[in-house]
Amino acid sequence: MLDGLRAMLEDDGYAVSCTTDLTSAMARLQREAFDLVVTDLYLGETQLGSHLAEVAAMVRPRPPVIVLTGRPSFGGAQEALRRQVADIVVKPVDANLLLATCDRVIQETLLARRNSELETANRVLSSVLPRTIEMKDPTTSGHAERVVGYADRLARHCGVNDEDRTSLRLAALLHDIGKIGIPDSILTKPGPLTPDEMEIVKRHPAMGYEVLASLEGQDNVRNWVVQHHERWDGKGYPYGLAGEEVALPGRILVLAEVYDALAEERSYKPAWSVTKICALFRDQAGRQFDPELAHLVADGLERQGKRFFAQEAGSLF
Ligand SMILES: [Fe+2]
Predict the structure, then answer these.
(1) Please, which pLDDT band fits residue 317 given cuts at 50, 70 and 90?
(2) How far is CA 24 from the centre of its chain?
(3) What is the distance in A from the centroid of ligand 1 to the CA of 65?
(4) Domains of the chain from N-terminus onward
(5) How confident is the prediction for the chain on average, in pLDDT?
(6) What sign does the dihedral 170-171-173-178 (CA atoms) show?
């Protein structure tokens, strides 16, 4: 049977390593990297399959295990095994079924590994980068993460689609990344900035756009980052875009960013009350802010206080 399996798998393009002995199978598993383990469930009275599955579970990267059994109705054992093995194939083995199962299990494992790598990359992006910005500008601790929550809450309220919401969360997280290019002496200067220093600070949205140039397929993220200091009346920077020249998610980001700056205590000012924030939003409706958005937020804050921006816990991405 082993010879038959080897021939079947090799014909299909697999490189196969065989053994009939549990001890050597376990040793090989720990020594070599396998993409897949195919094993009989029983060798005599020994539960070969479950032993191997246990060993495989400790190997990194963990190879998936397919178990062959002639006793599929052996209920309890089968169910227990299902928790550890990728799949079970019933003997006598149907060649096409086994090959299809091998192929599927390998693909699923590769996909799971790729997803886990992407998750790690996302965790790096969503935790390391905001900390990097904060190290440059320690006055804004936790600012980026809070702006993500506020912007997303508003976006959902305004019916922004899922794809744009994902881009907006990323833009909110990275909106001040361009501050990396501003000298520390200016960013951490106590007291007011000179007009020349102010001009340098105003370069940070465009620098953010440059920093994110290598993010492929994320034009919206870059656009909303570069636009986060634009104003509805066109008096913002860097381009002086007005009204709907900035797309809705970008206008939401502007508002969310200012809300956090007002609602939190900064070295140069205490946290503003809801009443004071609402007064500013109404006053700046149609000037700094999209008027509809500004009134929507002011209405919400007056109704619910700061709970208006409360976000249920969940992953950012
Ligand atoms: Fe900024």
Answers:
(1) very low
(2) 41
(3) 51
(4) 2-112 (3.40.50.2300), 137-309 (1.10.3210.10)
(5) 88
(6) positive
The pLDDT score that the predictor gives to residue 313 is: 39
Ligand 1 centroid distance, CA of 221 (Å): 14
Q: Is the model's pLDDT at 314 over the cut of 70?
A: no
More confident residue, 130 or 83: 130
| Model pLDDT, residue 215 | 82
292 CA → ligand 1 middle, Å: 22
Indicate which residues carry an active-site annotation: 179
Q: Which residues contact 153 (CB under 8 A, 6 or more apart)?
A: 308, 309, 310, 311
CA distance 150 to 196: 32
Q: Phi, psi (5° rounding) for residue 78?
A: -65, -45
CA–CA dist 103, 274 (Å, integer): 59
CA 175 / ligand 1 centre spacing (Å): 6
Q: Which residue has the higher pLDDT, 228 or 216?
A: 228
Torsion angle of the four alpha carbons 302, 304, 305, 307, in this order, in degrees rounded to the nearest 10: -150
Residues 6+ apart with CB under 8 A from 179: 133, 136, 137, 187, 204, 207, 208
